[in-house]
Each structure stands twice: as structure tokens, then as C-alpha cells.
Amino acid sequence: MTTTTVMKPDEVALRSDLQSVAFLVGEAEGRWGLADPPGIAWPHAVFWVAAAPRDGAPTKFSLRLNCEGYPALGPTGMFWDLGTAAQLALASYPKGTGDTAKVFRIDWPSENATTGDKPGGALYHPFDRRPMSDHPNWKTDYPNQQWHSRRTVVDYLEMAYGLLNGPTYTGIK
Question: What is the rounded radius of gyration, in angstroms, for the C-alpha atoms of the chain?
Fold first, then answer.
């Protein structure tokens, strides 16, 4: 007897986008990829994103994205430690100035036992659905940077890759 697993539409959409030319080109160029393991354990997917060389810093970071509701809802993600299968220690988060410091901030959201929020538990960017719930004004303040259903996980990964390889990324110190 065989069992058939039926995927939800949001998982089907994500898996389809992982076969897109844009995702595969980024993967072939070494910019990002699906971490293997753990890969996808729905509704979470873990990706690696390459980072520019900096003293004492890794050359790639893992991002764990909650993709429930994708693509209608943007993912929400945090840096992830593959070895412990938990959120990356805040001391090991990427650091920088300017936009890098803003997006990878570790002083937000505030810890909240009721909601499960933890500092560094989401990227502080309009692509990430978690900060959008705190900042409804971002829809008008950042109209070209907000998530919408025509965006894909590639947009999220491009944003992270751009910051980790830009001039304002300083490493983990």
C-alpha cells in the first residue's frame, strides 16, 4: 500500500520557484541555495546565502524562512545555526552599518513569550512579513520594497545577498 502526500498550494508555489531560472542561476553562481539538510520541512525552508569575505566571519549564512501562505504572504526569516537547528546566536549575526545594520538588527523584535518573538527573529525589511505587521506605514513609505504575490523567494534571497556582499557589511564583529 502506498501513501500519497498532498502538498498545500503555498508549498507547491515555493517548490516551483526553486526550479525557476532566477533561483537556479543564483545557485549556480554560488550566491545562495537550499541547505541540505534540512532543506524544506514545511512550512520552513532553510537556505544558505553567500557573504563577502570578512575577517573572522563565515563565507555564508543560513536563513530559515517560514513560508506559510507563500507567495500571498511574504516569508519571515531569521539567521539559523545548522549545527544546533536553532536561531543563530545573536553574537554571530552579520553586522554592518547603514542598511545592513538596519535589516540585520538584533534589538528587534522585543522578546514576547505570548507571540514567540525573539530578538533577531525576523529581518527588518518590507519583504519580511513580521516587521510589516508592526509597520503598516511601510506600504506607503517603501512601495517598491514591499512584498506582493508576484515576488518570489529569490527577491528575499537577493536582498539578503546584496546586504551580505555590499560595502556596509562588516562581518560578525
Answer: 16
Q: Which residue type occupies 124?
A: Y
Query: Beta partners for 56?
Result: none
Place of cell 514591499: 146
Contact between 50 and 59 under an 8 Å Cβ cutoff? The reply is: yes
Helix or strand or coil: residue 66?
strand
Name the phi and psi angles at 149, rounded to 5: -65, -10
Those residues of the chain that have pLDDT short of 70 are 1-3
Question: Rounded to whole angstroms, how far apart are CA atoms 55 and 4?
Answer: 49
pLDDT of residue 128: 95
CA distances (Å), origin 28, targets 23, 24, 39, 133, 155: 9, 6, 17, 34, 16
Give the other-Cβ count within 10 Å of 122's Cβ. 23
**Distance from C-alpha of 45 to C-alpha of 66, rounded to nearest angstrom:** 7
Q: What pTM was estimated for this model as a whole?
A: 0.94
Grid-cell match 526550479, residue found: 19
Question: Which residues have a Cβ under 8 Å from the Cβ of 137 and sit 6 or more positions away?
Answer: none
